[in-house]
Amino acid sequence: MPEMFKVLTPADALRVLFDQLPSDVLEESIASGEALDRVLVEKLAAPSSLPAFPRSTMDGYALRAEDTFGATESLPAYLAVIGEVPMGRASELAVGPAQAVVVYTGGMIPPGADAVVMVERTQKLDASNIEVLRAVAPGENVIDVGEDVKEGEPLFDPGHILRPQDLGGLMALGITQVTVAARPRVAIVSTGDEVIPPELTPGPGQIRDVNTYTIAGLVARAGGVPLPRGIVGDDYESLLSAARVALEDADVLVISAGSSVSTRDLTANVVNDLGKPGVAVHGVAVRPGKPTILGVCSGKPVIGLPGNPVSAMVVAGLFLVPILRRMQGVVNPPVRRRLTAKLSHNVSSVTGREDYVQVRLAERDNQLWAEPVFGKSNLIYTLVKADGMLCVPLDSNGLHRGESVEVELF
Amino acid sequence: MPEMFKVLTPADALRVLFDQLPSDVLEESIASGEALDRVLVEKLAAPSSLPAFPRSTMDGYALRAEDTFGATESLPAYLAVIGEVPMGRASELAVGPAQAVVVYTGGMIPPGADAVVMVERTQKLDASNIEVLRAVAPGENVIDVGEDVKEGEPLFDPGHILRPQDLGGLMALGITQVTVAARPRVAIVSTGDEVIPPELTPGPGQIRDVNTYTIAGLVARAGGVPLPRGIVGDDYESLLSAARVALEDADVLVISAGSSVSTRDLTANVVNDLGKPGVAVHGVAVRPGKPTILGVCSGKPVIGLPGNPVSAMVVAGLFLVPILRRMQGVVNPPVRRRLTAKLSHNVSSVTGREDYVQVRLAERDNQLWAEPVFGKSNLIYTLVKADGMLCVPLDSNGLHRGESVEVELF
User: Fold this and answer.
1) For site-directed labelling of B18, which of A379, B67, B115, B310 has its Cα 20 to 30 A away?
2) What chain B residue is nearest to A222 in terms of C-alpha separation?
3) B384 and chain A in contact, CB less than 8 A
4) Of residues B274, B279, B400, the one with CA closest to residue B346
5) In chain A, which among 275-294 make CB contacts under 8 A with chain B?
6) What are B354-409's pLDDT values in tens digits?
7) Which fold has domain A338-409?
8) CATH of range B55-143; options 2.170.190.11, 1.10.357.20, 3.40.309.10, 3.30.1360.120
9) Counting beta carbons within 10 angstroms of the beta carbon of residue B179, is it exposed (0 to 12), middle (13 to 18) or buried (19 or more)?
């Protein structure tokens, strides 16, 4: 009954899995207005210059800068106002020597003019003449053609996650449709004879399904579409047929397995029979989460998560999230929210495995403390009560009270 | 034509606005499985203890710990195996002295037993007898009733933003429905005679709408529902009637105003006539973003954003995002992603206003540098090229090259 795990480090395990997975990114074309937080798969360059015409940055008068050289309050320059540039239209006027045209912020600079004087730096003499009280330099208060972006200038590389301002930048150039990575569809199957749907009342020995919901949340946050596929009993035939159906509709399959040795074997057998090559990694040097199964079935990743809620979330964070990012071609994964804090208690570990410890953050004595939330990995409220996790690295056998630690916030 | 602004600091402006806004949170009841990133408005306590029965954390034998006291490999304890606890069911067996029952991880501890010995620490003698090779303590490898949470224990306070593990925690207790803040509906009206929809090709003097999309993105990220209401020309009647219709269907109205003095006045007049009390703040000590308008019309917040894309995003971040959080009753706004970096260039400012400067992050010489992306606030690609912003505080007249600065990532 005892089982020998051939355990890999988390980094090695991920490498082994990635080596057996196709590296192509599924794409789709969507409206740019719907593309927030989606991952670009195309390289985009500016189809035209922005702005396409010189624009004023001020309310004032467009003029020839040289006409104002030397102007001061006591020795102003006199200019004839020959008209106004209406917003949203080209000027029909050309500005000649000693002439000026009224322009508004964002309006087009008329031909002949090369600068704008702010209205506050002028004085009206009469209906058609002004004094300019200060010299302006050529180009002053003007945005040049292409000053925002020039035609042909690279805008975004593939793998970029689109932010609010990026959508604005696309729209400014008329790029109203973009090719992005399709959101990976992740089927989630929960197993266990003791597991029941949360809306039912458990009888003796029964517990409600937790992992379907924690994993669905992680999937959504990583850009995937969670497809909960319900609960399956602990027998080979049921699990294999449920896994088959689930994987058909999905790009990734997650099996939240039971935690007993027999159900772990069951999951491994199902993954092996679901499609070639089957199990790639069985057992990872991480606590909690050692009995992790990583497999590839007919080109699709299949993950067997330990059934304990804490283990399931740690393992999903270590493997499922990077898989989903890779499937979307993410180049720079978003910087996770990470804080530095002082550890409030000793944390023991053993060398040769990564330990993930849930911590609560507390501010005391002008100092941010990371307080370990000690609790068995079977306890979902260990995670609920925590603000984040810290990692005790592979080569460490523990961390000391008072040490500075990096906490990844949930 | 020049206009005197009565400018408040950003903090004061927000206070003035909040003082005139109702503080109640609109709520709705939704399925817990759909509640990721939503804000709880109710206080929740555990309706029952979790687990509801004592559970094994190991595959092994449930037994009376005292029967194993003193057991070693050379002097094992002998126990009679009287049966097995099936997963998901109560045990029909009671464990007496010198008896043991097979249990699996997550299975129920049968009456009479108070500990579990791992299967690896035992040896089978025959079909119904084992040797226990090591003593176990009472409670060892057992999760007690209520060890995860106890009945009545507080779970979440109002204002908590639900994370993946929180959904799991709710489901574990059968809380399949929760009362959360309704997502505030934010109508966005773009104004400007020169502004056209992005799918059209601009003629001379015309530009494509940008702010509708950047603001919609910010709204979605802050938990709101963006309702883009199109583009309106720069005249009082059109803007007032568009604003009326937009505000009727929405909880918040954002008007992305033109940037010329005349269109700013237009927006202020419309906000004053849209509902009482109207404009609360006109002008804020922030750059970019000084011509901000904050108003309250018939109990709903109305924001007049400057038309420049950079100003619009800075101001939306300073005012719209906090308004949306308050409307949802958020208690601890998510820690924004924030990094410390070294400033690569001097940044000038003047005391008495907050300056927001876009920066790009670059790693050089083992050091993270914040490189200002200098650019006029009319340039959307100033934001696109940046990784985040830094704030030069009110009382500072600039930052020096080499200074350590905090960068809020986009």
Assistant:
1) B310
2) B164
3) yes
4) B400
5) none
6) 999 999 999 998 899 999 998 888 899 999 999 999 999 999 999 999 999 999 98
7) Beta-clip (2.40.340)
8) 2.170.190.11
9) middle
